[in-house]
Amino acid sequence: MRLDQRLIAEMIAPKARVLDIGSGDGALIDYLFRTRNCDARGIEIDMKEVTRSVAHGLPVMHGDADHDLAHYPNGAFDYVVLQRTLQAVERPREVLRQMLRIGRYAIVSFPNFGHWRLRLQLLFSGRMPMNAVWHTPWYETPNIHPCTIRDFLTLCQEEGYIVDRWLAVDEAGERAPWRRSIRLANLFGEQALFLLSKR
Amino acid sequence: MSYARLEEGLTLECGSVLAPLDVAYRTYGQLSAARDNAILVCHALTGDQFLAEQHPVTGKPGWWSRMVGPGLPIDTDRFFVICTNVLGGCMGSTGPRSLQENGEPWGTDFPPITIRDMVRAQALLLNHLGIGRLFAAIGGSMGGMQVLQWVATYPERVFAAMPIATSPFHSAQNIAFNEVSRQAISADPEWHNGRYWDYGAVPARGLGVARMMAHITYLSEEALTRKFGRRVRRDPAIKGDTALEPASLFGEMFEVESYLRHQGSSFVRRFDANSYLTITRAMDYFDLSAEYDGDISAPFLGCKTRFCVVSFSSDWLFPTSQSRLLARALNRAGVNVSFVEIDSDRGHDAFLLDEPDFDRTMRGFINGAAEHAGLGKAG
């Protein structure tokens, strides 16, 4: 499992009802079911991954964050997880609203566009940054709404969401030490992970 | 032919009573001591109970022999599989061909039945067999309608449900196709207002045409093109090989025509015209939301059954959009649902054919559900 998935799993209480949006190969829901006894389900846009997950006995729906969340009832889940997908959805603000409508908590991870290397690349080359996380050229990237950690916090403030926990990590899998300073996290964190709830 | 005679009978939705009621069925595998490993497989419009064995009339393998058996996705080494001939059918269950009290066949006097009536007849059979709860109900097309109706009627009796290539209601287009089939049958001169047995006749041409038309809707354009293209065969019955004979408009036949004629004529040998009318009408009536103001999720509110909804990408009779509608309605009801569209170019019939992704999905869903049901790991 990827590091951000392990960190997400740590945030989830045993026996919780979990919806994993963008469940990919189903690794997280499988882990949550087997180690935490969770009622975990997935939504995945890539049909090959859906078929693979269902063939492994995992409950996964073909669908996407923009169009399918509206069909779940209020409070259907304890946690709704969105892994590395926020930047790729059509309406991130609406997706967050739906997540906190159908779940008590939203867990959101996204790659931080404010990382210093991206800033430097743009500053010195004058071209769209490319690295291990942002690895597709601008004309074919699925990431239509990249944001920084500070951007995301501003959105949470505007929407009145409570940030119950947050952390920044680097791609090598280390938890970043600048946990108290958002400014530093925004500069040095490659991935951000947020646990949100509604007031 | 094994069947259960259920003396208590069944009161149909229309109010008529069928007593006694015969339900013909076949079983495969062993019922566990705890009676918790039963899977009901529901057949489509023209299927029957001969699921995984040689068909007594056609001599062909059962319609899902590739899916049901030892070690196969529906594994008869683990599960006790039951398949019934539907109510209104013509392979041993009570239907238009059965005799009334006066010794006459029912024919067109057979009361109108619904998918729910079919399901209630199956439930009576399960009671008779001492099976309270199904581990799973699985079926494609009309079989999928029965699966949905099973959960809607007896949510506590079905642990897992797999409706395949189906829909929560029969669409106007589907009803339209069925009506063309029915008109073909009743336009046959041998129809005799449905009392064809009085004349020692069967409306073979009409039933054959009905089957030909329906068969086209089961395939896809790609499948027909790949299988037949525009290839032509000379019909030996019409023309010899000599070039001296004059050509005629129908002197030769496209392969696809020949195939459809074969489908039509072999169907007539194993199916009854009045059954065809009764069952197509039952499909037309099917609408899970009818009693709930059009809300498809209403029948599934609070339901604990695990669902896996499956569609096929080239199915234009029961398109993926209808399965998605169903999957979303199940989500609205808070049901645990998986939804997969299998990529296939073979149309509606793909669920009967060799589609490895479909087999994997079936096996995975059953094994996953068995794990949740505490039935233990696959052997």
Structure, briefly:
Chain B: Substrate binds at residues 211, 349. The complex is a heterodimer of chains A (199) and B (379). Chain A is α/β, with parallel strands linked by helices and 199 residues long.
Q: What does this molecule look like?
A:
The complex is a heterodimer of chains A (199) and B (379). Chain A contains eight helices and seven strands; from the N terminus they run αβαβαβαβαβααβαβ. With 199 residues, chain A is of the alpha/beta class. Chain A has one domain (3-198): 3-Layer(aba) Sandwich (Rossmann fold), CATH 3.40.50. In chain A, strand 2, helix 3 (47-55) and strand 3 form a beta-alpha-beta unit. The two termini of chain A are 32 Å apart. Chain B is of the alpha/beta class. Chain B has two domains: 2-170 and 290-372, Rossmann fold (3-Layer(aba) Sandwich); 175-279, Orthogonal Bundle (Rna Polymerase Sigma Factor, Chain: A), CATH 1.10.1740. In chain B, 32% of the residues lie in helices and 17% in strands. Chain B has helices at 115-129, 142-153, 172-186, 204-218, 221-227, 255-270, 273-285, 320-332, 356-372; strands at 3-6, 10-11, 17-18, 21-28, 38-42, 68-69, 74-75, 80-84, 134-140, 158-164, 232-234, 252-254, 306-312, 337-342. In chain B, strands 1-4-8-5-9-10-13-14 form an eight-stranded mixed β-sheet, with helices on both faces. In chain B, strands 2-3 form a two-stranded antiparallel sheet. In chain B, helix 1 (115-129) crosses helix 2 and helix 3 (172-186) packs antiparallel against helix 4. Chains A and B meet through helix 3 and strand 3 of A and helix 8, strand 14 and helix 9 of B. Chain A: This is Methionine biosynthesis protein MetW. Chain A: It holds the Pfam family MetW. Chain B: It comes from Kozakia baliensis. Chain B: It is an enzyme of class 2 (transferase). Chain B: Keywords: Acyltransferase, Amino-acid biosynthesis, Cytoplasm, Methionine biosynthesis, Transferase. Chain B: Transfers an acetyl group from acetyl-CoA to L-homoserine, forming acetyl-L-homoserine.
